[in-house]
Amino acid sequence: MTAVLAVEGLTVHLTAYPDRSSILDDVTFTVAEGEVLGIVGESGSGKSMLALSVMGLLPPALTIRSGRIAVLGDDLSGRPREAWRAHRGRDMAMIFQEPMTSLNPVMRVGTQITEVLRWRAGLNRTAARRRALELLEQVEIPSARNRLDAFPHELSGGMRQRVMIAIALAASPKLLIADEPSTALDVTVQAQILDLLRNLQRQSGLALILITHDLGVIAEIADRVMVLYAGRVAESAPVRTIFDAPSHPYTRALLGSIPDITTRRSRLTAIPGTVPDALSMPPGCRFAPRCQNRQPPCEQAPPPLRPLAANHSAACLYAS
Fold it and tell me: Does residue 235 contact residue 218 with C-beta atoms inside 8 Å?
């Protein structure tokens, strides 16, 4: 399969503290055509920053120190904003966490979709509006023709998220990044949005990166899983391997914290401690302060991401 996205050794730090911080540290992965990569980890693990790095949308407070980001073979590392802009929308698109803050509140949703179609697909006003209607129907918005002229605040949270998906798919990108696409939605609407994403991905064959806290979603949708912790890749493996034979202590801890409705417990299982701050990362394994299996070597130097089996790697000295 052709690699739609290739990231090698990506390191991102706080611009004001280049020698003391790393939001992302030596992150390497690829996403192939038609593949669904799930990225999981606690809040503060760097998942959203990784997505913004790939899209070339990092805020000024963050800077890419080193690494390579290639979209469809085009290396964008160190390139000007115009190079990234040429790929955004056309070759890669992103669905952000909260559609109410991502959609323009004073523009009708139809206008926001046609804007992409006119700039990226070169359609005239009439053709763009017709295509916008087709996209709203494709993402299963009821009474789509009437919704074209609605403002974002006139739509429910689920419909706003569907509009975001329609905008992302407008120019038929090869890569779609969905950053917590079901955040703040009720359970029923979450399931509908995720089913919609899965069906659209299968129909179009695009590469999908799904960022989520929900390991149940990952089990249903993803082909491969990358576990992030404090800006570093803790483990990467096919989805079945992650659930059947996790190797990194952090991965096992995440899976162990999932409530089990078949077992009666007085307390839920939790991971002790919190994700370290970017300015106070431990010198060795970043998970070591919270790891129940840590040994003295774990606190001396960051463990490399080493292969354990076919397509399975873990950054742990004692993983097997």
Answer: no
State the pLDDT at residue 259.
78
* Closest among 215, 268, 264 to 243, alpha carbons compared: 215
Whole-number Å distance between alpha carbons of 198 and 203: 9
Cα separations (Å) of 51 from 57, 107, 179, 277, 319? Answer: 9, 26, 8, 19, 27
For 1-35+45-87+215-259+269-320, which CATH class?
alpha beta
Residue positions counted in the chain: 320
Look up residue 276 and give its DSSP letter. Answer: P
- The mean of the pLDDT values for the chain is 91
Domain residue spans of the chain: 1-35+45-87+215-259+269-320
pLDDT value of residue 184: 66
**Residue 20's pLDDT is what?**
81
The residues that bridge with 233 in the sheet, in sequence order, are: 228
Is the Cα torsion angle 183, 4, 93, 160 positive or negative in sign? negative
What sign has the CA pseudo-torsion 114, 88, 25, 245?
positive
Which residue shows structure tokens 């979709």?
113
* DSSP conformation letters of 297-319: GGGTSPPP-EEEETTEEE--TT-
How far is Cα of residue 148 from the mean position of the Cα atoms in its chain?
28
Closest-CA residue to 28 (of 242, 306, 317, 310): 306
- Using the predicted structure, report yes or no on whether residue 24 has a pLDDT greater than 90: yes
Q: Which residues contact 245 (CB under 8 A, 6 or more apart)?
A: none
DSSP for 181-222 reads TTTT--HHHHHHHHHHHHHHHHHHT-EEEEE-S-HHHHHHH-
Local structure of residue 34 (DSSP, 8 states): T
Q: What is the pLDDT of residues 137-156, one digit of tens each?
A: 999 999 999 999 999 999 99
